[in-house]
Amino acid sequence: xxxxxxxxxxxxxxxxxxxxxxxxxxxxxxxxxxxxxxxxxxxxxxxxxxxxxxxxxxxxxxxxxxxxxxxxxxxxxxxxxxxxxxxxxxxxxxxxxxxxxxxxxxxxxxxxxxxxxxxxxxxxxxxxxxxxxxxxxxxxxxxxxxxxxxxxxxxxxxxxxxxxxxxxxxxxxxxxxxxxxxxxxxxxxxxxxxxxxxxxxxxxxxxxxxxxxxxxxxxxxxxxxxxxxxxxxxxxxxxxxxxxxxxxxxxxxxxxxxxxxxxxxxxxxxxxxxxxxxxxxxxxxxxxxxxxxxxxxxxxxxxxxxxxxxxxxxxxxxxxxxxxxxxxxxxxxxxxxxxxxxxxxxxxxxxxxxxxxxxxxxxxxxxxxxxxxxxxxxxxxxxxxxxxxxxxxxxxxxxxxxxxxxxxxxxxxxxxxxxxxxxxxxxxxxxxxxxxxxxxxxxxxxxxxxxxxxxxxxxxxxxxxxxxxxxxxxxxxxxxxxxxxxxxxxxxxxxxxxxxxxxxxxxxxxxxxxxxxxxxxxxxxxxxxxxxxxxxxxxxxxxxxxxxxxxxxxxxxxxxxxxxxxxxxxxxxxxxxxxxxxxxxxxxxxxxxxxxxxxxxxxxxxxxxxxxxxxxxxxxxxxxxxxxxxxxxxxxxxxxxxxxxxxxxxxxxxxxxxxxxxxxxxxxxxxxxxxxxxxxxxxxxxxxxxxxxxxxxxxxxxxxxxxxxxxxxxxxxxxxxxxxxxxxxxxxxxxxx
Length: 737
Description:
The strands form three sheets. The protein has a four-stranded antiparallel β-sheet. The chain is built from 24 helices and ten strands. The longest helix is centred in the last third of the chain and has 42 residues, at about 490-530. The model is unreliable at about 530-685 and about 685-720 (pLDDT under 50). It has helices spanning about 1-15, 20-50, 55-95, 105-110, 115-120, 140-155, 160-180, 195-210, 230-245, 255-265, 280-290, 330-345, 360-390, 395-415, 425-450, 455-480, 490-530, 570-575, 580-590, 625-630, 675-680, 705-710, 720-725, 725-730, and strands at about 215-220, 305-310, 315-325, 350-355, 565, 600, 635-640, 660-665, 680-685, 690. By secondary structure, the protein is of the alpha+beta class. The protein is about 55% helix and about 5% strand.
């Protein structure tokens, strides 16, 4: 168990930059791996604590021991092992040999110096200080590259996803069918070593003496008046219920002292022996029983079935023996015990049934119920922990699904592998909860922590981070228990089989199934978000002007002072590619920070900054140029709404004081549809600002004329406000923007 955390920490250490200080490398390692190992250690610790609540002492002892071991291992990793990594980090920084702590030769220097293969294998390491970025000294681990570039790439293809899901469904169907064939109980011959003589004895006993296997004792612990005919009738009815069950051999093999005593009373040959006794009275009934009936040699065995009080005047308790037949396995033994106790509980007397093997059969009754309870509680606790450390419900849901799937697989396949559900396998099923969470939690946390944008890229990033630690952890655990497979005992062999199944299914779920489920659910959620119209109410501080899903620009009346930024190129591309709102904001922010975006203008380009709303042709000129977008050629034009010296109130309802509309668009030549409008403006090469172009073909017009000449959408939200504020704009027509 402890080696899993070791591999996770080492993998995180390998991904750090060798040129950084050791303190920064340790910080990066713990920031990436500490949460992951905390989740797995905490889930393992709690799953074993839940096992302490079971009623089996052996399970309790094992779970207490393992829980303490898990806690100690976790503390050891975050303290002592971290210190060891830091010491090794300082040795790496000085290019010291990992074994002899002497300066080592970088591999690139050894190759350039034509050193021998043995020297390059055993005496090289570190990086060349003269060329620290060379590929030879900064090679990634082969397995990490394999999980990222080979397995991760394969899992990104839809046919591969479908194939793995189909294989998983087959696995799940077989596992569910195996769960229906579960055999409960621990057979007697499995308690001994395979080479013990007792195994032969138990097998012979099961082969030849299972026709009539057990004598069941029915004990009545009440002080009754057996001379009463009603008591005799009730006692007879109770015995008949026991004898009529399918596991009973019938009345012919039942031993009942009361039935034999009543038959003795009715026998004519006993008339002279019982003469003078009134058998309807309690005193005479007991006196005749003790002095006459129990002294007969034929019924001497009944003396042990009756317990008298101290003075011998009353029967304190009595016993009857029932013979069973055709009880051949643990499931039948469990069913027999349950039915016997049900009849005893429903009888009018204080009745107890007993057989010396009941101490083993009782665990058959409790093991299924206890296992289900322990697994359910542990799974619920795991869900809560995962929601705390991985606050993404869909990830927690898929991890919980993986836990259930692994449990079904382990129970079903261990049944097909001749392992019964008993106290030994129940220990392993409790361990299965912790192991199944380990690999699933590692992958889920790495997936949601990845900074990649697409789901397939996050799969590759997660596998690159934790694919190798999962493989190392699973192989090390299997190698650690593989010696148990050669032990001549069912207990050790069952332990090996269940742990092997847990590790195998857990690793396959973590490396293959869970990444696919996370990516598919992520893609579905992203596609649903893309179908929602992009118009949303803006929060305070937001800088994006939303647009409707049909592509028309809508500039709503603001309810608070704000700066609205409209990335036309980005928003238009998002409708084509299905990017979400956050991607648009990040993309627009990246281009707004470029020097080419610091262009201010003081003329209206058709976005409605002077009380008019743009026509469709003012910005929908040509299709997006993907190459210009990729190379960052998007142009940003700012329109500051300048105030007059007297700070007069403007009547434009679309804007408030100190508001700026920023427009992000791909630069393009003015089209013929808007040539009359765009010919008013040109960019001053010195200042980078838009200025009014004075030409004979296009005289300068007033603000009011421009308002009347520009085409507007009749249903625009600014139309009514523009019409009402026309007079105010005419007063400002002589003032430049």
